[in-house]
Protein: (2Fe-2S)-binding protein
Amino acid sequence: MSDGGVMNTETFLCRAADVPDGGALKIERAGRPPLAVFNVGGRFFVTDDTCTHGEASLSEGEIDADECVVECPWHSGAFDLATGKPCGAPCTIALKIHAFECRDGALYLLG
Ligand code: FES
Structure:
């Protein structure tokens, strides 16, 4: 459905309540790489789920709430959740972060 010729491209990700504080939720997408939604003390972050060093699922990683970092479950590489920058070896390639909107208790991917 278009709105004055502008396509609405937001995509429902999950309900905020589905992501526990200090946890993450993997979002599978048909034909596209999975995403991870992180909840760090009520702040949400949406990133690619797959580590840039290997095929590990970052939604299964350890979250350091103080540093706002996720540690990969495979080789303990780490990423800053706010920027996607690698901050722990062996990761050197940035993680893609995604813009989203939180509305009425639900998260929507933008773009
Ligand atoms: S797969 Fe993530 S650090 Fe190696």
